[in-house]
Amino acid sequence: MATVSPQLRTIAETAFEALNSGDLDAYLSVIAEDVEFTSMIAEMEGQTFRGHEGARDWWNTVRGSFQDVKWELLELRECEPGAVAQIRATGALGGAPVDQTVWQAATFRDGKLTWGRFFRTEQEAREALQS
Fold first, then answer.
1. ∠127-99-24 over CA atoms, to 5°?
2. pLDDT in tens, 79-110
3. DSSP letter assigned to residue 120
4. What is the DSSP string of 64-118?
5. Sign of CA dihedral 29, 33, 36, 38
6. Distance CA 30, CA 70 (A)
7. Is the pTM for the entire model greater than 0.85?
8. What gap in Å lies between CA 99 and CA 69, rounded to an integer?
9. SS3 9
């Protein structure tokens, strides 16, 4: 994994630990009150999740739909004005096995995630940060 700032590493580790342990409060601790993000799993609905209320909605609907889910951070790279991360999600959704690898583009402020979008390639994620 690429070298990243200690602050970014802490945010990522806290978020993934929270996702995998089911600790919503810990997850919210690294999410800005005005966060805006999307989910590849909910992309068909074109839904954007906003604020802590949106993060809770995502947690309860998307994350809550999985059985035995595990999120794994494969790569994390700082890329102005934020970072890109390669993420793998495994588990089951409606009894069907899921093994999906995606790239996330994200921005941060004051040690918290402020914006995030998911993409199929690193290049798409990097381009999203530049637009």
1. 80
2. 989 999 999 999 998 899 999 999 999 999 99
3. S
4. HHEEEEEEEEEEEEEETTEEEEEEEEEEEETTEEEEEEEEEEEEEETTEEEEEEE
5. positive
6. 19
7. yes
8. 10
9. helix
Cβ contact 101:94 at 8 Å? no
Q: How far apart are CA 16 and CA 32, in angstroms?
A: 16
Helix (H, G, I), strand (E, B) or coil at 39: coil
Q: Are 86 and 74 in contact (CB under 8 A)?
A: yes
Tens place of pLDDT for every residue, the chain, 131 residues? 567 999 999 999 999 999 999 999 999 999 999 999 998 765 555 689 999 999 999 999 888 888 999 999 999 999 989 999 999 999 998 899 999 999 999 999 999 999 999 999 999 999 999 98
Q: For the chain, which domains are there?
A: 6-130 (3.10.450.50)
CB atoms within 10 A of CB 35: 22
